Amino acid sequence: MPAVNVSGGESLATTNEMLPGQRFGTKGNEGLKTGYAKNAGYCFTGVTVIDGRRYIKVVMGSATDEGRFEETQKLLDYAQEIADS
Predict the structure, then answer these.
(1) How confident is the model at residue 4, as a pLDDT?
(2) I need a surface site. Which of 1, 41, 56, 63 has the fewest CB within 10 A?
């Protein structure tokens, strides 16, 4: 499980790959929540601010832990395309 540095030099073990410094970490991420339930699969909910606009991302039903972050990244890429146009 990756570790994320928090204030005071401590490290926090996390499975949330959207946090800063993690593989899918994105500038502007504000609120993040991962989850898993048998009926819902791997899920992710978060908020990202891009160019002053707040984007709410919700991914449910992913078959894998990594898949929820890949799908979230696709949503962010799409949001960036819209913001750039």
Answers:
(1) 57
(2) 1
Q: State how far the Cα of 46 lies from the Cα of 24, in Å rounded to an integer.
A: 12
pTM over 0.70: yes
Token code pair at residue 82: 């819209």
* Per-residue pLDDT, 5: 58
pLDDT below 50 — which residues of the chain? none
Number of domains forming the structure of the chain: 1
- For residue 4, is it within any domain? no
- With beta carbons less than 8 A apart as the criterion, state whether 30 and 48 touch: yes
CB environment 29-44: b (16+ within 10 A), e (fewer) = beebebeeeeeebbbb
65, part of any domain: yes
Residues 6+ apart with CB under 8 A from 5: 11, 12, 21
